[in-house]
Amino acid sequence: MSYGSTIALKPVDLTLYDGVTGLFGPNGAGKSTLLRVLTGLLRPSAGAALLHGDEIRSSDESIRRRIGYVGHEAGLYPRLSVLENLELFSDLHGLARGRVSEVIEQLDMGEWRATRVAALSAGLKRRAAVARAVLHEPDVLLLDEPYANLDDDASERVSATVQTWRAPGRVAVIATHGAKRVKAFADAGIIIQRGNVISYRRRTPTGYEVAT
Amino acid sequence: MAERGFVGKTSVLIRKDLLVELRGRDTLPPMLAFCVTVALLLAFSLPGNTVMQDAVEVPIGTIAIADVIAGFLWITILFAGLIGFARTFEVDRAEGALDALLLVPLDRSGLFAAKALSNLVYIVVVQLVLVPVFALFFSLGLGADWLVLVLVIALVDIGFVAVGTLFASLAAQTRSRELILPVLALPALVPIFLAAVELTSDLFMGGGFEAVAARGWFGVLIVFDLVFATVGALTFEFAID
Question: Which of A12, A59, A212, B66 could form a Cys-Cys staple with B52, CB 3.0–4.6 A?
Answer without folding.
Answer: B66
